[in-house]
Amino acid sequence: MRKLIIVMFFGLGLTVFSHATGKQADNKSLSLKQQKLVIISALTARGDLIPLKKQLAAGLEAGLTVNEIKEALVHLYAYCGFPRSIRGLQTFMVVLEERKKQGIKENLGKQATPIKDKRNKFERGKSILEALTGTKDGAKAGYAIFSPEIEVFLKEHLFADIFERDILSFSDRELITVSVLSSIGGVEPMLNSHFGICLNLGITLEQLRQFITIIETEIGKNEAGKANLVLTAIVNGEK
Hints:
Elements: H1 3-10, H2 18-21, H3 32-46, H4 49-61, H5 66-75, H6 77-80, H7 82-101, H8 121-133, H9 142-146, H10 148-162, H11 170-184, H12 188-200, H13 205-218, H14 221-235
């Protein structure tokens, strides 16, 4: 397991950790780059390509690298499907081509670090999930009992193949995830779980409330209202 996972697993608290989680300058607001990731992810999940095009350019201007945006667009396919992800990537290609014609030189950013962990992907994915949640992997959920293969896919692909790539921090990946879940709707139990992971990674309630405000502005009051209900239930200790 890479050192960054060990640090996260034994050092969880109220701040965001190392490059693995994208340490915040403070815990009062999301960084501008994180705000742009939220908007880009939400619009891509909805298939709103016209405003997405503008926000992709705004994300680059805010300091996101080409590879960070590409990684975000790939990440979200796990939550809203290949069609939305691919359309997002195609839209991003158009944006980059237009900016190239304007003579704008982009910051490509870093590539993913090769994985050196020799364990199988299931074990790596299990460890990453434990780091995200701050708990040991326990009893299987009902859906995993009903369909054991989906647990394998989740551990080996989502949490190993995707989350293990270090172009984006765990915190950024979770913000992308809750952006998608809030935007598509009807997946409140999953949104509940991922809000919990956000809090475990050190994203604060204030930052999540800011996130909901962004969803209201960019996606709609209905989607923001449902996300707020989920977050309020967590604050109140409700299941």
